[in-house]
Design brief:
three-stranded antiparallel sheet, Arc Repressor Mutant, subunit A, 6 helices, mainly alpha
Length: about 150
Amino acid sequence: MKSTEKYGKEIDLALSLWVKLVRSHSVFTKKSIEDIRRYGLTEPQFGALECLGHLGPMTIGTLCSKQLVSGGNMTLVVDNLEKEGLVERIHSKEDRRTIIVQLTTKGRELFDKIFIQHATRIKELVSVLDVKEQTQLSSLLKKLGFGIKEK
């Protein structure tokens, strides 16, 4: 009996899917991080720049929720990006107690330069699937994610 035929067809299929999903995620993440490191950034730094570059200025709390990281970790990420002159903290005009994080001119220039390069690398990585397969997989992963969230 193969190790993938121990628990019944449905459970074995689910376990096989899970292993393939985890392995592909691991390889995909490794390749993505390798690309991000080319720019002298960590994955959380790149994520923060990407979020600010696409969505604009926001509080650290909002940045945390967009990046799915803790406040303490994001504060350190923003501190380091600020030291590099890539982001700045400003007081909100509506509520001076609220601190907004935004890209500096240097940060915007870096984002504009590197994001398209990174996006091109991601396109290269997924090119093992044709456009139809990419669309199908994207739809299925979305369905899986939303479905799991409800359980």
